[in-house]
Amino acid sequence: MAQLEEILRPPERELPPYPPKFIFLASGEKMVVRQASREDIPALLRAVRPLTEVERDFYDIVAARTYAELLGWQRYRVRDEYCLVGLIDGLLVGLVNGRSLSPRVGVSYHTIAMRRGVRVGAHLFASKMEYHIEHLGQKEVYVVAESPIGFRRWMIEYGLEKRPQVHHELGGVMSWALTPELYFAAKERLVVGERPVPQDLMDTAAEITVLEEEVLVRQVTGRKVR
To answer: pTM here?
Structure first.
């Protein structure tokens, strides 16, 4: 059995760490952005699962796919995946994930905001692009969107380049690409955050807490859970 598991598991590269930072949100709160570990995955799965029933703004398909991606990471069935989380006093307010396809190319998976109205998703997506371009040193990041909000936030805000010849792992429409030139042109406008994170603030982000299902669903939809 152990020998078969060795065959089923993809090889893993040790990716460069994402240095944590904190962002002042429009609400005045401080959101810590840090890299998630495999030990964090059970909490992330608990947070994502209820959103698979939320049709608003395509949360259902984004959450379902993210759940599978996180589970694949936990079960060692995806290669070179990472996840960044946004935390306010330890409370999970959003996450982004993706993977390194090669030393030159990154793949953006998904962005989920569990707190709306203060650009949590936009800030986390920017952090994800920062990771690919500045810390992984990649030359292109392939991106697709499943919702109109995503298209406006990613393709239009960053002026992404079309890559009709590239089949994205998520399927659907053609890929779009972020290059270092596009990233650095948008960085001053879209990529924010301060480093280093003060230790007392970093301590609040050590463990992830998750909202109760009813509160989480109400927060992203404005309605009660069924």
So the answer is: 0.96
